[in-house]
Amino acid sequence: MIRRKEKDALELETRRKIYRCITRFPGLHERELAKKLEMPLSTLVYHLHYLEKRDLIMAKNDGRYMRYYPTKKIGARAKEIMSLLRQKMPRRIIMFLLLHPNAYHRDICEEVDLAPSTTSFHLKKLVETNVAKKITIGKETMYVINEPETVSDLLITYKESFLDSAVDRFADTWLKFGPQYIKKKEGKKEKEDFSNMLS
Amino acid sequence: MWDYYISLFLTVVMTGLSALLLMVSMVSSYRLRNVKLMLISIAFICFFIKGLILCLQMLLDFEIIRQNNIVLVFDLVVITALYFAAIKD
Questions:
Q1: Whole domain around residue B28: which residue ranges?
Q2: Based on the structure, what is the number of domains in chain B?
Q3: Which of A20, A123, B9, B16 has the smallest number of CB atoms closer than 10 Å to its CB?
Q4: Minimal Cα distance from B35: which residue of A?
Q5: Complex ipTM, two decimals?
Q6: Alpha carbons B72 and B70: distance in angstroms, whole number
Q7: B76 touching A, CB under 8 A?
Q8: Using CA atoms, how far apart are residues A138 and A122, in angstroms rounded to an integer?
């Protein structure tokens, strides 16, 4: 199970690399791509077929070589998902849920290292936009991505811009600035002091 | 003469930086739909408008802000927006 998840994550990263290379240098053929990416030709061909089948790239035969170009077809739904992928925390939660479907709320909190209320805030956004589904079993809540294939395809095309990282940092800084956050920090410090005293 | 150029340079830098921060804060509040970030955007809008008016005033040699009170009003709006942003949970 773990090996499968590792493989999925690696494949996603490899496809992103290939997609980025094609968008940066459109019109390269297989051998040129393999050389640029330092990747075995057989692996590259396998991923190129995957990307082509999902309309992320297109191949054109110039009579001698098969050359690859990005398609850049983004619909309204994709744009909605993309707006969430541009935000750091929702993106981290989505990536975690893709690799760990049916993850519990506490597991997500641990993974993103956020307070349960903040995690719930981001998860609520994912549920409201229909990106994720909430499953309640007794007192526990599980989350699963609704269209994992569409979301993982968009993760391939996603590229963080300067504005995205600036917006993330800006929001992080200002949202942490408030009495509630300071109280939490003080509470944490008190707990740490108390445990230090005990030890 | 040097005083004029130094003031103009500082005003242009202030306006440029506030424009950048205004853009980032507006995108953040739009993406996160957060009231706190919206208040911060209002503060940066005021900074930007103030800088723009001061720039135009210096370049066109025309007094748009005659009274010091108007500058104070801008500063008050900035401080109030930041205060509410800081106390908002």
A1: 2-88
A2: 1
A3: B9
A4: A175
A5: 0.75
A6: 5
A7: no
A8: 22
